[in-house]
Fold this sequence. Notes:
The structure holds two protein chains of two kinds.
Chain A: H1 3-7, E1 11-22, E2 26-37, E3 41-45, H2 52-59, E4 67-72, E5 75-76, H3 81-87, E6 88-91, H4 103-113, H5 118-131, H6 147-158, E7 165-169, H7 177-194, E8 197-202, H8 205-211, E9 214-219, E10 222-227, H9 229-234, E11 239-245, H10 251-258, E12 266-271, E13 274-279, H11 282-295, E14 300-306, H12 310-318
Parallel strand pairs in A: 3-8, 3-9, 6-7, 7-8
Antiparallel strand pairs in A: 1-2, 1-4, 4-5, 9-10, 11-13, 11-14, 12-13
Chain B: H1 3-20, H2 23-43, H3 58-75, H4 78-88, H5 90-95, H6 101-129, H7 138-166, H8 169-185, H9 198-204, H10 208-217, H11 226-256
Amino acid sequence: MNAAVAALGPFAIxxxxxxxxxxxxxxxxxxxxxxxxxxxxxxxxxPNGAGKSTAVKILTTMTHPDAGRARVAGIDVIANxxxxxxxxxxxxQKDAVDLEATGRENITLQAQMYAMESRDGRRxxxxxxxxxxxxxxxxRLARTYSGGMRRKLGVAMGLVHQPEVLFLDEPTTGLDPExxxxxxxxxxxxAACDGVSVLLTTHYLDEADHLAHRLAIIDDGxxxxxxxxxxxxxxxxxxxxxxxxxxxAVIGDALRALSPRNGWLRDVTAEGRAVHxxxxxxxxxxPGVLAALDAAGVTVASVTVSRPSLDDVYLSHTGRSFSAAHxxxxx
Amino acid sequence: MSTLVMQPTHMAxxxxxxxxxQPLYVVMQLVxxxxxxxxxxxxxxNVATLPGFAxxxxxxxxxxxxxxxxxxxxxxxxxxxxxxxMERGVLDRLLSTPARRSSFLIGQLGYWATLTVVQSVILxxxxxxxxxxxxxxxxxxxxxVAAAVLLGLVMACFSNTLALRLRDQNTVIAANVMLVLPLxxxxxxxxxxxxxxxxxQTVARFNPVNWAVEAGxxxxxxxxDWSIVLTRLGGLAALAVVFGLLAxxxxxxxxxxx
Lengths: 331, 258
């Protein structure tokens, strides 16, 4: 974050008590509040219909909230939508690329809509084509581009006017792993090197974990929890320890053997031939667990220790596993 | 130059460029009115012997009518451009820029006006080759093209309004098909008013298609009645402004529904 940016105030985005309903029955946002610090990447995570896209539409001045207020880089989205549009870049879920135009024509038109004419505009367009490895394909119709190239073109278009705040609505949905990781490093670079504040919504927990400085899990139109990925994970209290028993071991013996250690081992559960438990420090707990089982004559096939994942965080806050929550439509 | 001029120009260029890349579509758009002109010209050739035609040949009579009808037909597709942009997310992207909503509309209308002019010039040329005389002279032919352009803009704005408010391709296309032919038949595109039943004559007075045909048809008369030309063009221009405002407002309705 450079000094000039910091001087403008601490928050890139402030959303306060946003509410939005569609018709009478559909409540998209109930009471959504969150803040994004300047120069950071912030992820909104949530199941389909949680209100992620609605929040983005309000913050990008595409639609009005029914109640609440929001400011982007200190500018009120309702009072001064054009002011907001000047300093934000938007990359929508759809590629939003004109397929009948070339890559260069697409970015050029976008530059022209920000009144960047002639020389400056052309230089910026060439720079972006280069940055997103589209120079060779620049004069081909976007119709001929791969999914990854179209997405890159979409992101490049969102950056043409060097926005202060960039909105990325599910930026890597539908991309192959290679295109995903290349876009990730580009997004990371935007915040780290160019001081751009980024709000991204995502379907992918690993994406939020990998990219976001902070994240908020939203469900049913409100924030259920927020913090850094590590904070959220450590609030789950401890590592998961998974013990796979041998075929001849008796699961009841294993549970009995571990019961004196209750209070230290938490949430001990059996599932088939496996025992799951939570413990503050998984690696240190393993020798004691193995010794106790050995003393009780229970033979162990394997032991694994894992740090809690965002999936666990998600499950504990929404009551649904992440994959199960993603069957419906997005809103 | 000011963004007020440049941004609409960029939008118009964008549509023209896309059109240029579909030469087959361009050809078909141009062939259709030629078919109307020569097919109807032959089919109804003898109609011109009826009283009410004032001795002009039918191709003479028909040429301004077909020109106006062709403008109506092609401009009626206008809304589908926005629908394609909506579907791909391009419209939302444009709306998220600080450019004025009116720039998007004016640019698109500039595209349609350009197309109507080109289509009209080609049709006038072909009609002349086919034997039409346009006795009113150059200025009156210009008025004919102006009438076609203005009527086309009214239709384009109407189609855009439907597209932005209903967001449904089928409705926009059906509205075009449903409206164009009845509007043309309730006008003097094919027959002079004197030969129409009285109720159609009455309805025709309020039909903007008829205004355009009346203004344009002066071009085939040796003595052009400029008061007819100017009042009809004035009416069309006023209507184009009204429908233009409706279309700009529809951008807001579209965003509210997002």
